[in-house]
């Protein structure tokens, strides 16, 4: 009986020892975890992982950009919630932490500074062979306004602009312009002079071919323009239009811009116009 008791205690000790070894291996201290701080589209990650010698980051934005840095910085290109994963490694062991990173985009201010556009990608750049006073544009829709950053040549003076906007995402409704046969359908037209201080936001009335518009707001109430600045051989201007001036909107606002001289001679279009595949640009809301 005594031998049996000793034998049982011996077996129990072996079981406990085995359990202890397994627990120690599973609880080796390897753990992945991070926090982040977003500044517009730019995000700085802080790595709080323990027991790791290597790191692999996947930023979950479809860019296929990864990082093996301990505390990387990543620039997202759009608003949204992204599942970012950090895998911490030590030899053959690994541990993964996944968290949602929320990107609300930059805090655009129409003040002529332009630095808040730094990480906003271009919505479009006109082909180098296309003759236009306007060469590139960035856009961003905030909660209250649709913002534009516009680059051009020395001929871009903004004496008169026509900003055509399709707000219902349906090219079959609103005014159809021959300049963009692959997609237009204009519900609102912003026409006036940013440098002259006059202009109106106009709502289309009538059929697709009718040049018929009703004023719903003035530039002074609905739009805000910076001064034109020259940087790096380019002329730059930023401006915004209040969303509340554009009625009900769906998903995107599609648009084009036509610039004219004070004598109404056209000097530029954004994007390229009058081709079979010419269509409006899109701003995600």
Question: What does this entry show, briefly?
Answer:
With 285 residues, this protein is mainly beta. The chain folds into two domains: 70 residues, Sandwich (Immunoglobulin-like); 170 residues, Sandwich (Immunoglobulin-like), CATH 2.60.40. 10% of the residues lie in helices and 42% in strands.
Descriptive report:
With 285 residues, the chain is mainly β. The chain folds into 2 domains: 70 residues, Immunoglobulins (Immunoglobulin-like), CATH 2.60.40.10; 170 residues, Immunoglobulin-like (Sandwich), CATH 2.60.40. 10% of the residues lie in helices and 42% in strands. It is built from 2 helices and 20 strands. It is elongated.
Which tags fit this structure?
285 residues; mainly beta; Immunoglobulin-like; 2 domains; 7-stranded antiparallel β-sheet; 6-stranded antiparallel β-sheet; 2 helices; 20 strands; 10% helix; 42% strand; disordered N terminus
Summarize the topology:
Layout: H1 2-26, E1 34-39, E2 42-47, E3 54-58, E4 66-67, E5 73-75, E6 80-90, E7 93-103, E8 124-125, E9 134-141, E10 145-152, E11 160-166, E12 188-193, E13 198-204, E14 213-218, H2 219-222, E15 223-225, E16 229-231, E17 234-242, E18 252-260, E19 266-270, E20 281-284
Low-pLDDT stretches are 1-26
Count of extended strands: 20
Taken as a percent bin, the fraction of beta residues is 35-45%
Distance between the termini: 81 Å
Counting structural domains, the number is 2
Second rung of CATH, namely the architecture of the largest domain: Sandwich
Fraction of helical residues:
10-25%
Number of helices: 2
Q: Sheet bearing the most strands, described?
A: 7 strands, antiparallel
Instruction: State the order of secondary-structure elements, H for helix, E for strand.
Output: HEEEEEEEEEEEEEEHEEEEEE
Instruction: Give the C-alpha Rg.
Output: 29 Å
C-alpha geometry: elongated
CATH topology of the largest domain: Immunoglobulin-like
CATH class of the largest domain: Mainly Beta
Please tell me the overall pLDDT: 91
Structural class: mainly beta
């Amino acid at each position: 009986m005594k031998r049996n008791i000793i034998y049982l205690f011996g077996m129990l000790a072996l079981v406990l020892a085995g359990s202890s070894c397994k627990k120690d291996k599973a609880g080796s201290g390897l753990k992945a975890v991070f926090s982040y701080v977003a500044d517009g589209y730019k995000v700085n990650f802080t790595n709080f992982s323990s027991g790791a010698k290597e790191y692999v980051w996947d930023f979950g934005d479809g860019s296929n950009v990864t990082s093996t840095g301990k505390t990387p910085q990543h620039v997202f290109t759009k608003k949204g919630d992204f599942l970012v994963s950090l895998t911490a490694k030590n030899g053959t062991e690994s541990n993964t932490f996944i968290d949602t990173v929320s990107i609300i985009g930059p805090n655009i201010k129409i003040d002529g500074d332009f630095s808040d556009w730094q990480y906003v990608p271009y919505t479009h750049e006109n082909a180098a062979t296309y003759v236009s006073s306007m060469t590139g544009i960035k856009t961003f829709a905030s909660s209250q306004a649709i913002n534009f950053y516009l680059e051009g040549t020395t001929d871009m003076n903004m004496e008169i602009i026509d900003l055509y906007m399709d707000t219902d995402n349906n090219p079959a409704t609103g005014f159809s312009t021959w300049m963009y046969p692959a997609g237009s359908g204009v519900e609102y037209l912003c026409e006036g002079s940013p440098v002259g201080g006059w202009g109106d936001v106009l709502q289309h009335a009538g059929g697709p071919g009718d040049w018929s518009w009703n004023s719903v707001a003035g530039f002074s109430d609905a739009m805000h323009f910076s001064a034109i600045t020259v940087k790096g051989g380019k002329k730059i201007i930023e401006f915004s239009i209040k969303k509340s001036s554009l009625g009900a909107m769906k998903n995107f606002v599609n648009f084009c811009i036509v610039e004219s001289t004070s004598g109404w001679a056209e000097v530029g279009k954004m994007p390229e116009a009058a081709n079979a595949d010419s269509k409006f640009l899109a701003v995600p809301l």
